[in-house]
Design a protein that fits this description.
- It is a single chain.
- The chain is α/β, with parallel strands linked by helices.
- The protein folds into two domains: 199 residues, P-loop containing nucleotide triphosphate hydrolases (Rossmann fold, 3-Layer(aba) Sandwich); 209 residues, no CATH class.
- It is 44% helix and 13% strand.
- The chain is built from 19 helices and 13 strands.
- A seven-stranded parallel beta sheet has the order 3-4-2-5-6-1-7, sandwiched between helices. Strands 8-13-12-9-11-10 form a six-stranded parallel beta sheet, with helices on both faces.
- α2 runs parallel beside α3, α14 packs antiparallel against α17 and α15 crosses α16.
- The protein is globular.
- The structure holds one DNA strand.
DNA sequence: CGATCCGTCATTAATGACGGATCGGTGCCTTAAT
């Protein structure tokens, strides 16, 4: 960052955001953008990633376009910015009426910040309008969604590179909290930001979170309830089933008299918002949730995250447990594991990928594919057909994809059953080492874990990224 | 894998036992036809 930019940024940091100091990683990310580099920013949850793109926007010319995965996230950000005095901000999404939308599109260049979904960016009226706008910075928030959702769930995430190119390849910043090197490579490839790229990477480890695993034998509810005798909220309990989330919230209310509610995709937008804001305002102590809950939850004092079911990947697990102890004052991640729990995940994985017959059927009937519903098998087939990738090659890639998912799940099983340091297992997946061995690290390192647990998190950058991950996958191929 | 849902059958006609089928998680966006 030039001296002039540096001073200017510092002044804005104070005037617009009220801070005198940067938090870890922020200054590097801001400098990267101001030097005109594309950036891939990976900072642990709760370290202020929004400032990384908002601050340089005030120095850069033109509009900042922020691609965001969730409408609720956009709405929260817009509201927050408005209450901080920023008027020139808008979210372009399906909450708007037709006339509102066209009004906003007409004067889109007047806005400094525009939030938008990947899907909305596929509408030709929108993209045509944006092409005539000077985009000073293109931001991809929660960029791991490209890899996590792109292939089977939200295919428009994989079209962001094309969008960027149609917008004239503006300066780009991708932000995430958890991405292994392979995911980062995919983000870089999809967005096509390899040239002039600056990676700002911080470790994913959260030493202030204690890692506990409880082996269960047909007594999960009892183990859960007794854990709640020790662990006091606010807290989140994650499930892989909506029905069980509902049922358990009821159980906790009845047995413990704790204010608990469930949260999943069956809830209306209004109920989701209501429960979320009650939780943030400490009117609810526990949320029993599916993976629908959490992104953008910025509550500093969540004290525990319990998993009733095994998550499908270390990424998911870290994202979910990372929601506790944002204030760094200590938190507990507890996994309730019973042999065979991985069955649900195996099933979900298999159901979401086409087998060879289904794929070749899609290839021979590609003309009809347009009319089919948007399930994940169709999405994947459609993706490869649209890319004009030959059938054999597509099948190879799907097999790789499946192997990767299996590897992720296998890591989680190892995490659940191993007798070795659990933090080491989790971090080695991200090619990280346990930086500081703390008393009470995990269920393996300390026989009987107890509260309080509030170590100081070290502030040390670590950047040795070998290609260990690829080696591990290669090993799996040979098995 | 395991739970649960649904239809069928059998038997002191309204329940219950059985087995086969189905489902289990994430969200954008719907401007047309009754």
């Amino acid at each position: 960052m030039s001296v002039k930019h540096n001073e200017q940024a510092k002044a804005i940091l104070f005037e617009k955001f009220g801070f005198t100091e940067y938090r870890e990683g922020q200054e590097e990310a801001i400098a990267s953008a101001l030097q005109g580099n594309h950036s891939l920013v990976m900072l642990p949850t709760g370290t202020g990633k929004t400032l990384c793109y908002q601050l340089p926007s005030y120095i850069l010319e033109g509009t900042t376009l922020i691609i965001s995965p969730l409408l609720s996230l956009m709405e929260d950000q817009v509201e927050k910015m408005k209450s901080n005095g920023e008027k020139s901000v808008v979210a372009l999404n399906s909450f708007l009426t037709y006339s509102e939308k066209s009004q906003i599109l007409k004067r889109i260049a007047d806005y400094k910040f525009v939030f938008i979904s990947p899907e909305m960016l596929q509408q030709s009226s929108v993209i045509e309008r944006l092409k005539s706008v000077m985009i000073g910075l293109l931001v991809v928030d929660e960029a791991h969604c490209i890899s996590q959702w792109g292939m089977d769930f939200r295919p428009d995430y994989l079209k962001l590179g094309e969008v960027k190119s149609r917008l004239g390849n503006p300066l780009t910043m991708a932000l995430t909290a958890t991405a292994v090197d392979k995911v980062r490579e995919e983000i870089i490839k999809v967005l096509d930001i390899k040239d002039n790229l600056n990676e700002v990477i911080y470790p994913v480890d959260r030493p202030s979170i204690q890692l506990r695993i409880k082996q269960c034998r047909n007594n999960k509810d009892e183990e859960l309830l007794s854990a709640l005798d020790e662990l006091k909220g606010p807290g989140i309990i994650y499930f892989t089933s909506k029905r069980l989330a509902d049922k358990t919230a009821e159980l906790i209310r009845a047995e413990k008299g704790i204010r608990a509610e469930s949260y999943h995709s069956d809830l209306t937008k209004e109920d989701k918002r209501k429960i979320q804001s009650q939780f943030l305002a400490d009117k609810l102590s526990i949320i029993c949730a599916t993976s629908a809950f959490g992104m953008g939850i910025d509550k500093p004092d969540i004290r525990f995250v319990i998993h009733y079911h095994l998550p499908g990947s270390p990424e998911m697990y870290l994202q979910e447990i990372g929601r506790c102890s944002r204030d760094r004052k200590g938190g507990v991640a507890l996994l309730l594991y019973e042999k065979g729990d991985e069955g649900i995940q195996i099933r979900l994985q298999q159901d979401s990928l086409p087998d060879k017959n289904e794929l070749s059927f899609a290839y021979t009937h590609s003309d009809k594919l347009v009319h089919l519903k948007e399930d994940s098998k169709t999405n994947i087939s459609r993706y490869f057909i649209n890319q004009k990738i030959p059938l054999e090659e597509a099948w190879e890639k799907i097999s790789d994809y499946q192997l990767n998912k299996q590897y992720q799940l296998r890591t989680m099983i190892e995490y659940a059953v191993s007798t070795g340091c659990r933090r080491k297992i989790l971090l080695s997946y991200f090619n990280e080492e346990v930086a500081v061995r703390l008393n009470g690290c995990c269920s393996s390192c300390t026989e009987s874990l107890s509260l309080p647990y509030s170590p100081i998190e070290p502030k040390k950058i670590k950047q040795n990224y070998e290609k260990m991950w690829q080696e591990k996958v290669n090993l799996l191929f040979n098995l």
